[in-house]
Amino acid sequence: MNIAILGAAGQTGKQLIEKALVAGHTVTGLARSPEKILFDDPRVIKRAADGFDEASVIAGLEGADAVITTVGKTNLRDKRVNLSTAAHAGVIAGMRKHNIKRLLAISSTGAARIKRDGIRRNIYLFLRRKYYRDMYDMEVQVLGSGLDATVLRAPFLINGPAQRQYNVIKDETYPNGSRVSRADLAQFALDAVEQGTYINEVVAIADPL
Ligand SMILES: NC(=O)c1ccc[n+]([C@@H]2O[C@H](COP(=O)([O-])OP(=O)(O)OC[C@H]3O[C@@H](n4cnc5c(N)ncnc54)[C@H](OP(=O)(O)O)[C@@H]3O)[C@@H](O)[C@H]2O)c1
């Protein structure tokens, strides 16, 4: 498969590329600065795309068989709070244009609309409420797109090797405060795309308790 990754220069993007190559895929890596995709491999096609520039995302997806998105705010001075919905509008339009059916969008457990315990947790969620609202809106946008879409909610991300053991939680009932490695997040995403699992579902993963 040719798997397009939006957010390819990020930390989870790097893990996704590594694992996709090991599995024998080719990768179309989309990033604002494609030179930051640090893979010197002919199976990695690098293209410039900005989630706020719909045309660049649409063009960037040409030739892909599936898309994984892993975009997240990295510049705290950028006050825009609609990165997720803006980027996925381009992704959905590009997938329709290029007849690509399979999409896995990485979201956050922060987007889930459930009651949380803990004052610190609730203060954090309140401060980031606009971003999580945007992520939630993106989830609705993706699941309503008519594509074979999966929303994968990530908890707090850590570095370290993949364990390939996940606590997989559907709907809105995941445990608070859990974490997972970016390597496991990437492996889970890749497996779901390869195997066609969790279509039109929201899933959250975390390390086994
Ligand atoms: N970190 C956490 O604890 C956590 C928790 C829950 C969910 N998540 C989600 O999990 C995913 C992976 O997180 P991570 O920490 O591994 O990611 P990360 O390293 O922060 O990478 C995010 C990527 O998004 C890209 N990006 C930002 N704005 C963009 C734009 N306008 N157009 C295109 N690309 C853009 C960044 O590109 P540049 O390199 O150009 O800045 C960066 O490569 C993200 O979707 C994040 O929201 C993270």
Question: What descriptive keywords fit this protein?
Answer:
single chain, 209 residues, alpha/beta, Rossmann fold, 8-stranded mixed beta sheet, 6 helices, globular, binds NADP nicotinamide-adenine-dinucleotide phosphate
Write a structural description.
This protein has 209 residues and is α/β, with parallel strands linked by helices. The protein has a single domain (2-206), classed as Rossmann fold. It contains 6 helices and 10 strands; from the N terminus they run βαββαβαβααββββαβ. It has helices at 11-22, 54-60, 83-97, 119-127, 129-143, 182-195, and strands at 2-6, 26-31, 44-48, 66-69, 102-108, 148-154, 156-158, 167-170, 179-181, 201-206. The strands form 2 sheets. Strands 3-2-1-4-5-6-10-8 form an 8-stranded mixed sheet, sandwiched between helices. A two-stranded parallel sheet has the order 7-9. β1, α1 (11-22) and β2 (26-31) form a beta-alpha-beta unit. The N and C termini lie far apart (33 Å). The model has no long low-confidence stretch (mean pLDDT 94). Bound molecules: NADP nicotinamide-adenine-dinucleotide phosphate.
